What we know:
This protein has 895 residues and is mainly beta. It is built from eleven helices and 42 strands. The chain has a 22-stranded antiparallel β-barrel. A hairpin with a 2-residue loop joins strand 21 (405-423) and strand 22.
Amino acid sequence: MSPSHLFTKHSSLTARLGHGLPLVALLLASPLSSAVAQERGTLGGRITDKATGEALAGVAISATGTQLRSVSHADGAFRLTLPAGRQEVLVRAVGYAVMRDTIQISAGTNTARNFALIKSVADLQAVVVTGTRRQNRTVIDAPAPIDVFTARDIKLSGRTETAAILAMLAPSFNFPHTSVTDGTDHVRPATLRGLGPDQVLVLVNGKRRHTSALVNLNNSVGRGSSAVDLNAIPASAIERIEVLRDGAAAQYGSDAIAGVINIILKENSPSELSSTFGETAEKDGRVMEIGGSHSLSLGDDGFFMVSAEVRLRDSTNRARPDTRPQYFTGDPRNNDPPIVRYWLGDSKTKDYGTFFNAAKPLSPSAELYAFGGATLRKGQAAGNWRRPLQDQTVRAIYPDGFLPYIVSDIKDFSGGLGVKGTAMGWNYDLSGLYGANTFNFGVTHSLNTSLGTASPTEFDAGTLGSGQITGNFDVVRQVQVGLPAAVSVALGAEVRRDAYQITAGEPASYVDGKVKILDGPAAGALAAAGSQVFPGFRPADEVNESRSNVAGYVDLETNLTKQWSVGVAGRAENYSDFGSSTTGKVSSRLEIVKGLALRGAFASGFRAPSLSQSFFSSTATNFLGSPPLPVENRTFPVNTTVAKLLGAEALRPEKSVNISYGITLQPIDNFTLSADMYRIDIKDRVVLSGNLINPNTTALLNAAGFAVGGARYFTNAIDTKTEGIDVVSSYGVAISSNSTMRFSAAYNHNRNRIKSVKPTPDALKTLGEALFDRTERVRFEQGQPDDNVRLMLEYEVGRLGLVLQEQRYGQVSVAPAAANLALDQTFPAKWLSDISVSIKATSMLSISAGADNLFNTYPAENIAGNSNSGNFPYSSFSPFGFNGRQLFIRGVLHP
């Protein structure tokens, strides 16, 4: 499914967005015409390292309140054209303290100014753009907790996936390594503060990112969600990641209940080429990654930054030999030594991606910008082993059984274009963004049992597609009203169109061939229909749905006194399918004494059910019970007749209340500590029901024409409460003129609790079913770590560097069988240690090597009843996976 096909039905939206072109022209015309008459001068000079005197390349120089910027060249020289008058200039470089200076620019003359930057031993004054619309807001003076992770932080370990890197850096971020969970093996869900993967809003360059087309259905964290695929954004394209750990629906819209992750793409960074190679201590999971970025100048003041990445990752497998009989009773081959037949571990992937980021000032008061990217990801993961004696096996095709594979073909595309500048005293930003994601399910080394010996062994099981078109117009200005500081007034509007599509697979992937089981004890019984491991989407599953959303917001920030800042935001939204909502937020920060401040926020939130939660339908093979047995489980959209027979009701939006309060402490320049308590109450959370597999339910489904063993559907089943605390601290010290040490510590404690469960509908009670069973409750309340710790020490001396990390992952619990408490299991907390050493071999080349999970730590093993007959020693709920030690070497070249 091409992006154009995805939105063919909604071409009128593109036309309506095109109506904004006259407004773009008007906005451009005003600053362009005023620029002609505006007097300008030039600021030029050289930027160096204060300690060594070496020239610094890639340093960003910008003028506050304008869209003008420049970057230093290889010799440290820069040139920036500015309007005449007093200008505040910001000079920023990764690893150095931000420098501010006010400079008088004279019309028609060249003003010389050199800057000598001081190495920063702690990034305490990092300027952030997330969670605020005021200029030059820093991490320290923000009214809500914000983490900033730079390109340097991203390269501290051997991890190459963006989501895995975030999980290493941020303790409130969870990224479990799922396995044998169908499509979720290929697009793994991540969470923030223990909430759902779809309850955190992801931005790229401050603009809303589209979600993955995949719906997570099986036994994993985030079951029932469609989340943003963070790994579709190459790490090589990222300048920094800002994580706002606070509810922000009033500022950014639906989905921002847990917080916001804003990925800032590289702008004028120095060109870079990097290569990483790694493998586990078991000699599997080999990773080969090559990435790079290059900046091209667009005149004296514009840039075009392009990044590309190729990552080839082999699979890991920690399954045990299968000791069960494989053949019918009496077959002598059952006495053969057991061998490994399952695949429990990381999927095999081939990822190719490229991103770009570009900007060109059109005048001193207007800038045209664009960004976007495309990724192609191919994956392979396995389902459950089918033994030769099982009824799912056609023994004439697979006499010794078979392990079916899901092969994915994931395409992701996004592009944004906008203009921002100043006009009539307002800073404005007008933009349009398009994004689409498709997930094609292929099935190999499999068969459709109901086709007998005529069955193919490879199938196209169908394609999921999602897309989004967004238009934004934002304006900000500073208004003087007699307070100690100006009031930052921000107004904005957003129009969005979402689309979702399911395309059926080839007939052989879903058809019931009516061929009965050919041999064995069950010969003559009905055979399972559809491709084994993942039955294809049927024509009846096909959907092509869309909805529109219009929103407007106001955001005010100011200082009531020099020490007391406040912010108020309100947002109104209207969805074509879920009606209107209003959300609000109040935040404040009070500096009691210099270096000690209190901060807090109260916010309401709103999340409309996704289109996939409203319209997704499919049949999937799930292995349920103990021992696990295959069950064909069908997901029914809530508006279907069968779902209504099972008690389904129309979905409602989720509504939330977020309260946070905390302190920030900075007693000395290079030390900071923050502690923030939070509580998030969510009403009418959208979740998947439990697996409804009672024999009465199966009989009802069969009578309705569905030859499946169970059902499930989306429902507003629960009201929840999430409470926790985040503590973050950092300290840096310059030991000598050429050596520095940095230490950071972060802790998150998080507790999810279900306040109430919607009563089981009478229709389900009659069938002997529960709407939301104990398995689902334990997964929700205890399936993610209750606390996490991150400790990091960085030491640099001359050309050498050392990084030590300690990570503690809290305990998680599972309840695989709702009716069998004996299978409940808690996996205790574990500490992991990482180490890496680096050397700057030349001025252009640096090399690092190290080990993630140095001591080869594994999670506690599954108890016998949860180990899939002894084949699965580890649980997919392990927050750090079960690959063991990963060794790596990385080279970075700055040509």
